[in-house]
Amino acid sequence: MTQRWPTVLHGEDIYLRPLRFRDRGQWNSVRAQNRAWLSPWEATVPLLNSDGDYQHLPSYFEMVRSLNSQAREGHSFSFAIWHQRNLIGQISLGGVILGALRGGHIGYWIDRNYANKGYTTQAVGLLTDFAFTHLLLHRLEINLRPENAASRRVAEKSGYIFEGERARYLHIDGDWRDHIAFVKENPSIK
């Protein structure tokens, strides 16, 4: 699938735009200021070698190149969440599979200074609409840690329905963590 990229999604108070190279300073600043806030929920890479070292994380520029390449190929779509001129978070639609499944999963993070203001819920709504309307996906998932009450509220307010538990589902904060799955189906795909 080839998707026109980059794409900008506009909401009421926010807009979603792919990261650009010139966003590096703002992205690094927001990530540094929110390191402790985000670490309990952030994906990590499991140990990969006998020395106990984690996989090398890409530079900002490598990350942006990779995200844009994945979007052009139709596998994953990642957006920065913007409020006015402020980068306040990031949201991604990953694991896009077509064929009989036609699905993907959504993940997100938000700057603690913008949490509990409805921005993440707006971002989930914009990305869900993009996935259902433009990509014609049938099913989306949001998988989150059971103790992340704020993220659960986002999924529920966005119309996602609790589907079940997933034991040791993702490597988060240095270990395999249990998750709960929320699902939304596209009513116009039969």
Task: Describe the protein.
- The protein is an alpha+beta fold and 190 residues long.
- It has a domain at 9-138: Aminopeptidase.
- Helix content is 27%, strand content 32%.
- The protein has 5 helices and 8 strands; from the N terminus they run ββαααβββαβαββ.
- An 8-stranded mixed β-sheet has the order 1-2-3-4-5-6-8-7, with helices on both faces.
- A hairpin with a 4-residue loop joins strand 1 and strand 2.
- The model has no long low-confidence stretch (mean pLDDT 93).
- Residues 14-187 form the N-acetyltransferase domain.
- Keywords: Acyltransferase, Transferase.
**What is the CATH homology-level superfamily of the domain at 9-138?**
Gcn5-related N-acetyltransferase (GNAT)
End-to-end gap: 20 Å
Q: Under CATH, the topology of the domain at 9-138 is which?
A: Aminopeptidase
Shape: globular
* Quaternary assembly: single chain
Q: What is the tally of beta strands?
A: 8
Give the key terms.
single chain; 190 residues; alpha+beta; Aminopeptidase; 8-stranded mixed β-sheet; 5 helices; 8 strands
Question: How would you summarize what this structure contains?
Answer:
By secondary structure, the protein is an alpha+beta fold.
What's the topology here?
Layout lengths: L8 E2 L4 E3 L6 H10 L1 H4 L21 H14 L3 E7 L2 E12 L5 E8 L8 H15 L5 E6 L4 H9 L3 E12 L2 E11 L5
InterPro entries: Acyl_CoA_acyltransferase, GNAT_dom, N-acetyltransferase
Keywords: Acyltransferase, Transferase
Family: Belongs to the acetyltransferase family. RimJ subfamily.
